[in-house]
């Protein structure tokens, strides 16, 4: 990619360096260094790496135009660039951010377990639409909510329930419905199976893959779980200590690991196979 960033890709980063500025007694911290990636339309790229490797930092930078993580968590691009649909995220104007937000959905880490406990499922799934357009036609919205609940394979009887009345898998399905109701062309999903019982993780991954096939959205899926990425991702990017150490299909990356960390990962993965 030689330093230039391609236009038209849902996600393109070029030599991207991301830093957390100094905060109180903590010095500045470079969390991602020189990351160059492209995600093609309709592709699902999995971002894999151990805890602290920089996965969430990438997600935060890519979604910063729509979700402000708060001053302590706000990472800054200090080198290279990141583009969404050809729009640079460095010095993004409000107008461009608003325009991008029509195309990009974000599924935050723990989205299922942080649903507002005072709202019903119907209200929770309708909320992103009403946030964008306060006076959206109620009848049409009801139809959209029902379609979405059906799409995430939940029974309609769940619409009047509150999050605490649901299982972890059901809550995560509600979170997915909220992320997809605005029909984003790009979805950034940070650990879509976090907070979900181990027994239903595979079901959530399969549901994600099915929804992606039906709706053909592009996605960046962050996970430390190879099984999740095997179910949903076309290619994976492996991060270690903020540096890209592997990129390709899962088999390409693990069958020919050019980096010792990836080789170790591949070994541990084959052990459990
Ligand atoms: N708000 C912050 N201020 C300073 N440093 C931070 C901040 N958040 C994360 N970091 C540091 O940046 C690095 C990358 O963290 P990040 O949360 O992106 O990792 P991760 O791969 O998503 O980890 P996990 O899988 O545990 O969520 C880590 O070294 C972490 O300590």
From TrEMBL:
ABC transporter domain: which residues? 11-266
Q: Which Gene3D superfamilies match?
A: P-loop containing nucleotide triphosphate hydrolases
Known InterPro entries for this protein?
Answer: AAA+_ATPase, ABC_transp_ATP-bind, ABC_transporter-like_ATP-bd, ABC_transporter-like_CS, P-loop_NTPase
Q: Does the keyword Secreted apply?
A: no
Pfam families per the record? Answer: ABC_tran
Q: Does the keyword Nucleotide-binding apply?
A: yes
Q: Which UniProt keywords apply?
A: ATP-binding, Nucleotide-binding, Transport
Q: Which family does it belong to?
A: Belongs to the ABC transporter superfamily.
> Protein name, please?
ABC transporter domain-containing protein
Q: Which organism is it from?
A: Microterricola pindariensis
């Amino acid at each position: 990619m030689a330093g230039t960033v391609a236009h038209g890709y849902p996600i393109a980063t070029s030599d991207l360096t991301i830093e957390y500025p100094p905060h109180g007694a903590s010095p500045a911290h470079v969390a991602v260094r020189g990351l160059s990636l492209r995600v093609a339309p309709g592709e699902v790229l999995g971002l894999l790496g151990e805890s602290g490797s920089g996965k969430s930092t990438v997600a935060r930078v890519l979604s910063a135009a729509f979700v402000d993580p708060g001053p302590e968590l706000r990472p800054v691009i200090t080198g290279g660039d990141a583009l969404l649909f050809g729009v640079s995220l460095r010095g993004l104007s409000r107008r461009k951010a608003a325009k991008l937000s029509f195309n990009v959905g974000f599924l935050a880490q723990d989205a299922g377990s942080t649903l507002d406990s005072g709202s019903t499922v119907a209200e929770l799934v309708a909320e992103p639409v009403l946030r964008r357009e306060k006076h959206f036609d109620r009848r049409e919205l009801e139809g959209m909510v029902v379609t979405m609940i059906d799409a995430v394979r939940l029974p309609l009887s769940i619409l009047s329930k509150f999050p605490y009345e649901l299982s972890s898998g059901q809550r995560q399905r509600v979170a997915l419905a909220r992320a997809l109701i605005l029909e984003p062309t790009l979805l950034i999903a940070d650990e879509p199976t976090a907070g979900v019982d181990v027994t239903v993780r595979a079901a959530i991954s399969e549901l994600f893959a099915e929804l992606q096939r039906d709706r053909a959205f592009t996605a960046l899926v962050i996970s430390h779980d190879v099984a999740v990425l095997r179910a949903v991702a076309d290619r994976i990017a492996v991060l270690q200590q903020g540096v890209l150490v592997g990129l390709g299909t899962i088999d390409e990356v693990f069958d020919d690991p050019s980096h010792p960390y990836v080789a170790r990962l591949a070994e541990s993965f084959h052990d459990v196979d």
